[in-house]
Amino acid sequence: MSPRKRPPWPLAAIVLAVAVLAVLAGRSPGVYRAMLEHFHPRELLAGGNSPPAPRVSPETERLDAAALELAARYAGEHGSLALIVSRHEHIVFERYWAGSGFDTPADAQSFTRLLAALAAGAAYSYHLIGWPDQPVSAFIPEWSHDPRGEITVRNLLQMTSGLAGGRSSTARDLPAALLHTPLARTPGAVRSDQASDPQLLALVIERASGQRYASYLSQAIWRRIGAADAWLRLDHTGGTAYADCCMIAHQGDWIRIGQLLLRDGNYRGDEVIRPGWVALMRTPGQSDPQYGAYVRVRWPMAAAGHEPPAARDLFAVEGEGGNRLWMVPSLELAILCTGSTAGRDAGWDDNHLPNLVIAAARDALPPAAQPGADISAIVPGH
Known about the structure:
This protein has helices spanning 9-25, 29-36, 65-77, 111-125, 153-157, 174-179, 196-209, 213-222, 254-262, 277-281, 352-360, 375-378, and strands spanning 42-45, 80-87, 90-96, 105-107, 230-233, 247-250, 266-267, 270-271, 315-317, 324-328, 333-339. The protein is of the alpha+beta class. It has one domain: Beta-lactamase (3-Layer(aba) Sandwich). Strand 7 and strand 8 (270-271) form a beta hairpin.
């Protein structure tokens, strides 16, 4: 995968300091609030601050506890901060390191951009976005007579806008920088892992909703899944939120996102996003079938020493940092493993940990025997 952009080193140092100190502070909100004062400029992403899904024993959900311990051992050996496993909307296993816990604030890393795709799904659900292939010129009149106006919402979701560069995190005016970014290639032709696409998608959401991105994201997604208050970085005080990086959130809250994805936009009985949007997110892109909308949906032939996925319908949120979120719809499994922003070590295998958890499911079937294992059956319309 192409590397994700890094914030400038002073900000990175601040984020790292906040994360480390928050770990040391454990669940003390007063200490954390004091430390957050150093994270500037920022905007509150208001959450619902509700309890997480019920916790039950692994055996209740037909998961072998000893196998989950093997997964935890592997996670711990590779510098993880948390491993949380959910099945059928229950939390069945948790293990934390370095004094952290479910409520420890941490750098969201590449999970941040996923929220733009989910917010776009909510906007589509309420007809603020007309259809996935709607040109962005419908929301950005500055491009109404510009070839860039032909970029579609789907292009932004699949990171195939064709815009040049767009990896800088130093702009003091993100919208202006975006609107002055030229096309480098035909939209839809080539996938390029760059910040400009989720950032432009966030701008589309702001224009479509008439709200600030943080406000709409809170209303449409974050509060409805009960997540705790979080913070987005701004380009300047009172300015625009970064949509591709630089978010601080409670690390355990990302298991809620996994549960939302597993249930096709439904979170514990609440239809947060219209059914079918998550299937669209999981649809392999034409330019790079390994990826859908900020999620990985296919893996090439395993490299030497690395395993193929143990489930054909596995999909994942991953990136340059150490955070990972895997979903297996056929087993209703969500697996969250957080780690350092520095990324994973050379001995880490991205498929080994989810494979261990999949093997823990007593009702798991071999990949070839799973009903609907063919990708065209898993992802409608492919």
